Amino acid sequence: MSLLDVENLGRTFGEAHAVREASFSLERGEIVALVGESGSGKSTTARMVARLLAPTTGRVLLEGSATVPELAYRSKVQMVFQDPFGSLNPARTIGHHLTRPLLLHRRATRKQAPQAVAALLETVGLDPSLAVRHPHELSGGQRQRVAIARAFAVEPLLVVADEPVSMLDVSIRIGVLNLMERLRDERETAFLYITHDVASARYLGGRMLVMYGGHIVEGGPARVLTGEPAHPYTRLLLAAVPNPRRGSSSTVTRPTGPRPSTGCPFTARCPLVTDLCRTTMPPVTRVADGHWARCHALGKENQ
Amino acid sequence: MADALLAVEDLSVEYRGLRGAARAVDRVSFEVAPGEVLGLAGESGCGKSTLALAIPRLLRAPAVITSGSVRLGGRDILELDDRRLRSIRWSEIAMVFQNAMNALNPVMRLGSQFADVIRTHTGLGRARALERAAELCTLVGIDPARLRSYPHELSGGMRQRAALAIALALEPKLVIMDEPTTALDVVLQREIMEEITALRERLGFAVLFITHDISLLIEVADRIAIMYGGRIVEQAPARSFLESAAHPYTRGLLASFPSIDDDGERLTGIPGSPPSLIDPPAGCGFAARCTLASDRCRETPPFVEIAPAHRAACWEVGA
Amino acid sequence: MKSAAGGAILAVLALACLAAPLLAPDGPAAATAGAFEAPSAAHWLGTNGQGQDVFAQLVWGGRGSLLMALSVGVGTTLVAVLVGLLAAYFGGLADEAISLVVNIVLTVPGLPLIIVLAAFLPPGPATIAMVLIITGWAFGARLIRAQALSLRQRDFIAAAKVAGERPLRVIAAELLPNLWSVIAAYLCGQVVFALTAGSALEFLGLGDAGQTSWGTMLFWAQNDSALLQGAWWTFVSPGLAIALTAGSLALLNFALDAATNPRLRAPGGARRATEVLRHG
After folding, report:
1. How many domains does chain A have?
2. CB contact under 8 A, A81 and C173
3. A255 within domain boundaries
4. Where in the cell is it found (chain B) (predicted)?
5. Do C270 and B89 touch (CB under 8 A)?
């Protein structure tokens, strides 16, 4: 039984399909990166997994059950948000942010809470004296560490991390990614890491899912996907990443016209597009062990 | 460089507040040659955006330029009277900001905003100005029909193209770009960068490109200056940065980017956080985060040439 | 500085009213001298048309006026906060229903309704307070709702939900602390409004003329033709008291405004810089 099974998840906002037919699973202690550009549906997927948003179709199973009660779900699935300036309450102290989940989920009594808070802050590499401070007194990196500490207060099995480093300064991003990796190793916590940064997804290792136009279009081990991408969108994404060592190579296709409502979402930008792509969403095609993609061209190329 | 287009010398900017003055830019000097792309890299709070606003004298109280000169084609911008200043802004120096939505007026159609700029500075009639606006749109890859749109009707990438087009309206010699692609995803970023490169080759303007993304700079810039704690700590041709980055901060920055093809090596980033600008440490601002720091670092290291065209401010590499 | 001045003025006024039994032991109604005597050592603020001491009336009457204003302020603020928060947090149908009621109440012309209601209900400060609360909460509810709505979009609210907080707890412990400055400013404004509107109603004769308050003092001054008699002290005293109270609260309000977290304000640097570039 997987820790998390996402089955055929979909979400619409009015007419717009933000997420369609998203299926994937996560094992205990596994890091899965969900990579895509803004508007790809990756954050919507994250919010559905974190139960902040109800799916329109499909379901999310935690340890095989789709009906885990609210509080029990919260004690096993936590979330770290993108903006450390928005995810902490400006009117409350750091201590408040960490004490509340401890008390709510009975991880500590009121008496034990101060020590537990201090221990949490030390776990994420912060000085316990910060507990009495307010968020605006902390730097962005410190705040994001507080947000991670808050998620870990309940000793979760899964942490949904929605672009946790994209708003941080370059020199401290790696520190936060390393912290996530360390917590995974020490506590066997799984991460669903949402990002637009393919390189950081590869850095964290694990598996990678590439999302485009609401569909997960490719999935597999991060090293394989970044090395031998099968889907034309993944190739485009990789070519666009600034890479001074390899030197610039790409000529980028420009989007032409709106995203189609049927068929593959990538048709408007795809160099391999055929008439079939415009009408039918490609099925999941196996590329290699644990590596799959949804593209009609896969059968025809020598992949 | 005697024939520099822009020569900034000894420029300092302070923010004067109740708790004392914060020196955001500290005796910064650099030059940009005609047609050159100078990359200015640094993290938030290093002073790079303040510097960008100081050059066309766009800073507002409590920020004050306390020393230095900014020479553009031989004239010191800091000495110009208001009328002369107005005449060179936009026509000789233009700017592109991170978030075009902030730079574009949300309640005016794109065409009117283009026409406004063109008419204010050239005295063209409205019809001629709109024609020129359509040319500019075509130039940056926007359908001229889009001139009838309001900024919010455009996608993020389109808005950034529009901001670029307006900046180029009067064929400036220098465009200051402050994180122009940071709000975009990589594919759009790549498109805009390719657009900028192509336009520069055609029109020959120079660019001061400000970003936190040093790997992007290594691809697009001719030379790169690294800013830390209000000072330029290293400056060299872009390609030197990969092989021979000298300053420990620069090396730390480069070691902060996971690459798309390295082999699982563990990166460390830089521990600690940038220095306070209000009460800066004596000597080298990076000493507190530096693994090479010694007693010498309590004195400010000079910005010296360590290789041809390669300068750095660090005691460890200067000797 | 402003807040200190405002607070000091308000404190002096409130203390004088609280200490009324000490400052004017005879009470407000005692006719202790002739009508319309000018201010003197015996009667600091002179006497009114009934021969009552104006100073005694002022300190005794202030109790009623200030109490009424404060209850209206607190009452409208409570209703406004409750309604505004519920509408903003729960959204959807609840929000639409509440907003409909709020908009209807807002379109009802306030002052005429107040006059009509006050005329039909038994006169007295309690009636006036009730009327002012009924007509006054809607604007505040809209204000609080708007503020709370923008806060609700912020991730710290989502984070509190992920932590497992229940809705009421999110409202009370996460939303509310961020609204204190708005609520305090609204409270100040409502107290000022209640004081002036309440006094105006009493001046129009819609209060209980038998009870002493700053408004009824004005009513009687008018009734006794004080203006024609040249007895300026009878109407200037309560008028000044009302103005001073309102002014001190406004000063307090300024201070609250300045203390509002500047981090919540949106930056406009790039737009301003572009405007400067564009127009020189």
Report:
1. 1
2. no
3. no
4. Cell membrane
5. no
Kindly state whether residue A242 falls inside one of the protein's structural domains: no
- The answer to whether B162 faces chain A, any CB pair under 8 Å, is no
Q: Decide which of C59 and B17 is more confident.
A: C59
Residue C270: per-residue pLDDT: 52
CB within 8 Å: B58 and C278: no
Chains with ≥3 CB–CB distances under 8 Å to B: A, C
- Is residue C270 in some structural domain? no
Residue with the two structure tokens 């369609």: A20
Spell out which residues of chain C touch residue B116, defining contact as CB-CB under 8 Å.
278
Q: What is the CATH number of the domain that holds A52?
A: 3.40.50.300
E strands within B165-282? 174-178, 206-211, 223-228, 231-237
Number of domains in chain C: 1
Read off the CATH number of the domain in which C223 is found.
1.10.3720.10
Q: Other C-beta atoms within 10 Å of B191: how many? A: 22
Q: Summarize pLDDT for B79-137 with one digit per residue, the tens.
A: 999 888 888 888 899 988 887 667 788 888 988 888 888 888 888 888 898 899 999 99
| Domain assignment of residue C279, yes or no | no
Contacts of residue A210, Cβ cutoff 8 Å, sequence gap at least 6: A35, A36, A216, A217, A218, A219, A225, A231, A233, A234, A237
Residue A303 pLDDT level (bands cut at 50, 70, 90): very low
Nearest to B258 among A199, A242, A247 (CB): A199
Name which of A87, A94, A166, A192 to mutate to probe chain C: the one with the most chain C Cβ atoms within 10 A of its Cβ.
A87
Question: Which residues of A lie inside 8 Å of C (Cβ-Cβ)?
Answer: 47, 50-52, 70-71, 74-75, 78-79, 81-83, 86-92, 100-101, 104-105, 136, 147, 150-151, 153-154
Residues of A in contact with C178 (CB under 8 A): 89-91
Q: Is pLDDT at A145 greater than 90 in this prediction?
A: yes
The Cα–Cα gap between C150 and C141 comes to 14
Give the largest CA-CA distance in chain C: 74
The CATH number of B6-92+210-318 is: 3.40.50.300
Neighbours of chain C (3+ CB pairs under 8 A): A, B
Q: Compare CB distances from C277 to B89, B99, B102 and report the shortest one's residue.
A: B89
Spans of all domains in chain B: 6-92+210-318
ipTM > 0.90 for the complex: no
In a domain, A263, yes or no: no
* Inter-chain residue contact B102 with C269, CB threshold 8 Å: yes
Q: Does any domain span residue A149?
A: yes
Residue length of chain C? 280
Q: How is the beta sheet containing B63-72 ordered, strand by strand? A: B20-32, B6-17, B63-72, B75-76
| Full residue range of the structural domain in which residue C59 is found | 2-263
Is A75–C164 a contact, with Cβ atoms under 8 angstroms apart?
yes
Q: A64 is in which domain, residue-wise?
A: 4-221
DSSP B134-188: HHHHHHHT--GGGGGS-GGGS-HHHHHHHHHHHHTTT--SEEEEESTTTTS-HHH
Cβ of B103 within 8 Å of Cβ of C273? The answer is: yes
